[in-house]
Write a structure and sequence with these properties.
The protein is an all-alpha fold. It has 15 helices and two strands. Helix content is about 65%, strand content about 0%. Helix 6 runs antiparallel to helix 10 and helix 9 packs across helix 14.
């Protein structure tokens, strides 16, 4: 008994890994700086090693270095999307979206940390695409102009919304409710377009740079929208930031595509006769189809990268302002603006000459996205390790 009494008392606090303030054991986060276990505690990144293989390998190596990414490990597109065509029960589908609340957010130690296998986004794309097709067939059959606005909205929304669902499925912690994603797609899309229009007006960059100016103005507009709407620091995982950015980018892409479809219709409208409207609808459908195919490789991916990089920097800084000024984020954000500007510049070459460059931009964008997802999964593993030690309980249990 005497020997037991002589044992030192178990500590009741531990130092915060970020600001070194004392954190009570069992706390969800540091009260001084908001640090969440697992964010900023992942294994330090190793410098990119020179790769053999010539110019292409050197390009990807430099991209990893510039975006502060690690080489993708264990990644396979075929394996990732292997669950898309698997049959699901209605109960499985209903339960799939019951996440993000205090009672439905899984404990961090139960979160799978392997590469996610999203599947529901495919059903969303098929469903919304079928809605668009039915509207188009109805218009061709009855030639009623009432169908046109619905075609513009549904057609423009199909691919961006399905891509936002894909990012919802990539959010491994499952701590963001679906209604918040819907809010970001809708309100975030409107806000980002509004801020971008203000940016175009006060900067007049488009008068000097032309189409590439959108790479600066629109990316800043979407970033501001993400910061405004998600300034409350209750979801701090890197994967959360990627999801928030993708949702805002999806809203921006959908509303912008609807606007381009409307402009295409007006530009091709020779007169208000039935034949004239039918002719103009062809131009509208072409615009919707082309922008729909390209949507996942543009705004959705770019804003996902921006917000993911910001959330990554936020893990090592005390405030959002500090994160915005962090060197790694600034460097990555310039890369996103360059990708967007290059996309717009090469689009002016037309499909035959411009499409290969746009495809390259899309491939680079998604390479960075998957690099961020990999880093996000590693943060979850780090949070699990800290939780299993019994020192700090990881992450909040929803909102």
């Amino acid at each position: 008994m005497a020997a037991l009494a002589a044992q030192p008392a178990r500590p009741t606090t531990v130092p915060c890994p970020r600001c070194r303030a004392q954190v009570v054991i069992g706390s969800y986060s540091c009260q001084a700086c908001g640090f969440v276990p697992g964010i900023g505690t992942a294994a330090p990144q190793q410098p990119a090693m020179p790769k053999s293989g010539g110019v292409a390998a050197g390009f990807w190596s430099q991209l990893d270095k510039h975006a502060s990414l690690d080489k993708l490990e264990g990644f396979s597109l075929k394996e990732m999307f292997s669950e898309v065509f698997r049959k699901r029960t209605q109960d499985e589908i209903d339960e799939y979206f019951q996440v993000g609340s205090p009672h439905t957010t899984p404990d961090i130690v139960q979160v799978p940390t392997g590469w996610p296998k999203p599947w529901f986004f495919g059903r969303v794309l098929l469903f919304v695409g079928m809605m668009y097709l039915v509207q188009y067939i109805a218009f061709l059959e009855f030639q009623n102009t009432i169908m046109l606005p619905g075609m513009m909205i549904i057609g423009a929304l199909a691919m961006p919304f399905a891509t936002a669902i894909l990012f919802f499925e990539l959010n491994a912690p499952r701590n963001v409710p679906f209604h918040r994603v819907l809010m970001l797609v809708g309100a975030g899309g409107v806000l980002s377009i509004f801020v971008s229009l203000i940016g175009f007006q006060i900067s007049s960059l488009h008068e000097f740079l032309g189409a590439p100016a959108a790479g600066i103005v629109e990316e800043i507009g979407k970033l501001i929208a993400v910061v405004i709407m998600m300034r409350k620091a209750d979801k701090l995982y890197l994967l959360n930031g990627v999801l928030f950015g993708a949702a805002v980018g999806a809203g921006f892409a959908a509303f912008e595509s609807a606007g381009y479809a409307f402009n295409a219709f007006l530009s091709a409208l020779p007169d208000k006769s039935g034949a004239g409207i039918l002719f103009a609808s062809g131009a509208m459908v072409k615009s919707i189809t082309l922008r729909g195919i390209l949507a996942p490789f543009g705004h959705v991916a770019w804003t996902a990268i921006t917000a993911g990089m910001l959330w990554r920097s936020r893990a090592y800084t005390k405030t959002m302002i500090d994160a915005l000024l962090d060197g790694k984020f600034v460097r990555a954000f310039f890369l996103v603006m360059l990708l967007h500007a290059t996309w717009n510049f090469t689009a002016g070459f037309g499909l035959i000459f411009g499409l290969p460059f746009m495809v390259l931009v899309g491939v680079v964008s998604w390479y960075i996205v998957f690099g961020l997802v990999q880093q996000g999964l590693r943060q979850v593993r780090a949070a699990q390790s800290l939780t299993k030690t019994g020192l700090i309980r990881a992450f909040d249990q929803g909102s």
